[in-house]
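HUMAN:
Just now I want nothing more than another pair of eyes on a protein record. I would be glad if you read both lines and explained how they fit together. I have put the entry right below:
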Amino acid sequence: MFKRLICLFLAMTAAALAATPPQAVQRPVAVGTPHVCMNDYPESAIWDGAEGTAQVAFRIGADGKVKDVTLVKSTGHEDLDAATLGCVGRWAYKPFTQDGVAVEMPWRAEVHWKLHRSYADMHPCANYLAVTPQLLAGIGGVTRISFRIMPDGTAKDPEVVRSSGNGELDKAAQRCIGGRHFNTMRAVIPDAGVPKEVQIDWRNDLAPAK
């Protein structure tokens, strides 16, 4: 009888433990600047109209700082991935604690890249020329420009390497690119600059004027 009571007690205890929900995972509390990366949207990605979601893994140190950021899932765009790693690396959290002591903890997060505004509004050449259906009639409407990005971020020697078939569009593209300033703070740019080409599809990239 005594043994049966012990067995019954143990069985009831095991059942009670099994019914107890597991302790919820403690979510880190973000501190400092908002944990969004839209201000880091690479200009190259805007040119490409690229969007996507990156998944990253990292460790939150006992001091709350993020370290060892790695890409778990790519956005599909190299520059967006690089911007993700740089942005997440600047995040900060309230440290995890265990028995009242701050401890390091692994964590994962997603970074969403979305061109919330229309591409026409964000396109670097959107305001240089009113593009009308009449202006584009009978031409391809695509201008390709070559130039060099200089260490100070300026664009040098913009040249038309492919004409849209309309001289006004091509000149607008040159003015647009020549007036751009690129963020080169995180890049190593030689004195001679870095060659680059961009293509402006006037018909598809920019909303026609109403």
User: Anything to note?
Assistant: The chain has a mean pLDDT of 77.
